[in-house]
Amino acid sequence: MTAYYRGNAAYREKGPPALALRILGPFLVFLTMLVFVSGIGLIVGPRPLHGSFLIVHKASFYLWLVTLVIHVAAHSKNVVHLAGKNIARHTPIRTRGARYRLLTLTGSLLLGSGIALALAHRAETYLHLYPHK
After folding, report:
1. What 3-state class would DSSP assign to 19?
2. 30-58 burial string, b = 16+ CB within 10 Å, else e?
3. What 3 state SS string does 28-92 have?
4. 122 exposed, middle or buried (CB, 10 Å; 0-12, 13-18, 19+)?
5. Number of helices and strands (H, E) in the chain?
6. Predicted confidence (pLDDT) at residue 107 exceeds the cutoff of 70
7. Helix H segments across 88-121?
8. pLDDT tens column, 44-71
9. Distance between alpha carbon 128 and the CA centroid of its chain, in Å?
């Protein structure tokens, strides 16, 4: 998405994504952030707001899941094609942006792991305060 809006020639030649995908993309990013923030709020937020965080977290998760399924379905053909090029190192065609995608994925995994490790000690407290019924 950013390569298109930065003016990358290959993306410009291909043209803009479908209008539905251009609307869906930012909505998916917003919902992803809402799921993360409400989940973190459940763990570290004030106890009186737990019910509110839980409602927001559940609702945003279900909306996020539906949006993600639509997004993945719309991009599935391109993803399979790009993944094949990225994985098949023996191919003579060098996929543009492969290194950037790998760095983004690695950074996301490291950031998520760091947040999970930083909040792991809170899980016991959370489960004690809000036991599952």
Report:
1. helix
2. ebeebbeebbebbeeeeeeebeebeebbe
3. HHHHHHHHHHHHHHHHHCCHHHHHHHHHHHHHHHHHHHHHHHHHHHHHHHHHHHHHHHHHCCCCC
4. middle
5. 6, 0
6. yes
7. 98-119
8. 888 889 889 999 999 999 999 999 999 8
9. 29
Cβ(120)–Cβ(44) below 8 Å: no
**Interatomic CA distance for residues 92 and 30, integer angstroms:** 38
pTM above 0.70, yes or no: no
19-23: long-range pairs with CB below 8 Å, 24+: 20/74, 21/71, 21/74, 21/75
Q: What is the mean pLDDT of the chain?
A: 81
Degrees, nearest 5: CA angle 58-26-41 = 35
Q: Which tokens sit at 39? A: 């989940």
CA dist., res. 15 & res. 11, Å (int): 6
**40: Cβ contacts below 8 Å, ≥ 6 apart:** 115, 119
Q: Is 18 left (phi over 0), alpha (psi -120 to 50) or beta?
A: beta
| pLDDT over 90 at 80, yes or no | no
